């Protein structure tokens, strides 16, 4: 992913590690690329579809404003195990699956990664 | 040559690895089996004994090494043989958690790098190296720092090993899905 988007070069980007940081809005964004990693962890802290829909919309609008802008979403697929018994766990999984569908619809490119090998789905 | 085989629990990945090894082993060569699991209870002891019995029935000559840690110590024993390492997940967990320091990401990364170096050395001192690992990434990333570091390092190792490997196979329900390198060697 870093290779494809050339993030290791001098390209200016901002990286949000969702396992260690909170998500942020585009106010004061100077960089042209933003990466949200660990999306499922971000969603876990606030499993609310309405919130994430408007979050995705805000970033989509930011991206549309200039040609060179790009938002990259990275998430773990947590939707394939046994349906959890605990209600909160189930809810988190549902919201995550729903968010991933929303993003897949919106995004220009979707890849599924396994051990660094990308399988392009869209 | 490295063959990387991964799969979920009870997916048939060990069977697949043995089949792979049988195809790679020459009739005169030895196959070294590196078992990284720590044998902790009776049930496991029995499983290990059963697997050893099964292997001894095969025409291939197996040599078993129980090596939960410091796999590099075995390097002098291999000479153009086939090496089967089962499995990476246990090895990494043993290296990370047998002593203090797993709270620090940098320390964990050093250990992961050491493992990768050993893998590269195993490759060059053997005829073929088959590595078995697990698919652990579908259950979400856990909150506790130890497991978080473990998964982060395992993912990092998977990427680098698959990059080095000539073949990468994902096993599901006993069926090999070739992700890299065409059909089985």
From TrEMBL, chain B:
Keywords: ATP-binding, Cobalamin biosynthesis, GTP-binding, Kinase, Nucleotide-binding, Nucleotidyltransferase, Transferase. GTP binds at residues 7-14, 35-37, 66, 86. One of its GO terms (biological process) is cobalamin biosynthetic process. Its EC number is 2.7.1.156, 2.7.7.62. It is an enzyme of class 2 (transferase). It comes from the Bacteria. It holds the Pfam family CobU. SUPFAM superfamilies: P-loop containing nucleoside triphosphate hydrolases (SSF52540). Pathway: Cofactor biosynthesis; adenosylcobalamin biosynthesis; adenosylcobalamin from cob(II)yrinate a,c-diamide: step 6/7; Cofactor biosynthesis; adenosylcobalamin biosynthesis; adenosylcobalamin from cob(II)yrinate a,c-diamide: step 5/7. CDD domains: CobU (cd00544). The active site is at residue 51. It catalyses: adenosylcob(III)inamide phosphate + GTP + H(+) = adenosylcob(III)inamide-GDP + diphosphate; adenosylcob(III)inamide + ATP = adenosylcob(III)inamide phosphate + ADP + H(+); adenosylcob(III)inamide + GTP = adenosylcob(III)inamide phosphate + GDP + H(+). The keyword Transcription does not apply. GO terms for molecular function: adenosylcobinamide kinase activity; ATP binding; cobinamide phosphate guanylyltransferase activity; GTP binding. Belongs to the CobU/CobP family. Catalyzes ATP-dependent phosphorylation of adenosylcobinamide and addition of GMP to adenosylcobinamide phosphate. This is Adenosylcobinamide kinase. It comes from Anoxybacteroides tepidamans. The lineage of its organism: Bacteria, Bacillati, Bacillota, Bacilli, Bacillales.
């Amino acid at each position: 992913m870093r290779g494809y988007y050339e993030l290791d070069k001098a390209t200016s980007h901002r990286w949000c590690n969702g396992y260690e940081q909170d998500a942020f809005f585009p106010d004061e964004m100077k960089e042209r690329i933003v990466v949200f990693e660990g999306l499922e962890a971000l969603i876990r802290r606030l499993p609310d579809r309405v919130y994430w829909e408007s979050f995705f919309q805000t970033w989509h609008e930011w991206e549309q404003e200039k040609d060179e802008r790009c938002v990259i979403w990275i998430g773990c697929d947590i939707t394939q195990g046994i349906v959890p018994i605990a209600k909160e766990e189930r809810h988190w999984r549902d919201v995550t699956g729903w968010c991933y569908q929303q993003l897949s619809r919106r995004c220009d490119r979707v890849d599924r990664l396994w051990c660094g090998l990308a399988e392009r789905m869209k | 040559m490295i063959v990387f085989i991964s799969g979920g629990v009870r997916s048939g990945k060990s069977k697949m690895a043995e089949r792979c090894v049988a195809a790679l082993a020459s009739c005169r060569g030895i196959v070294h089996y590196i078992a990284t699991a720590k044998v902790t209870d009776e049930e496991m002891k029995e499983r290990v004994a059963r697997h050893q019995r099964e292997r001894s029935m095969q025409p291939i000559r197996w040599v078993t090494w129980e090596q939960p840690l410091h796999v590099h110590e075995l390097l002098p024993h291999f000479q153009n043989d086939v090496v089967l390492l089962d499995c990476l997940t246990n090895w990494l967990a043993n290296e990370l958690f047998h002593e203090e320091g797993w709270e620090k990401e940098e320390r964990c990364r050093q250990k992961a790098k050491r493992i990768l170096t050993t893998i590269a050395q195993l490759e060059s001192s053997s005829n073929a190296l088959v590595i078995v690992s697990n698919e652990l990434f579908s259950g979400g990333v856990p909150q506790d720092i130890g497991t978080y570091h473990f998964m982060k390092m395992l993912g990092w190792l998977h990427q680098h090993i698959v990059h080095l490997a000539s073949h990468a196979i994902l096993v599901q329900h006993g069926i090999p899905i070739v992700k890299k390198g065409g059909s089985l060697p």
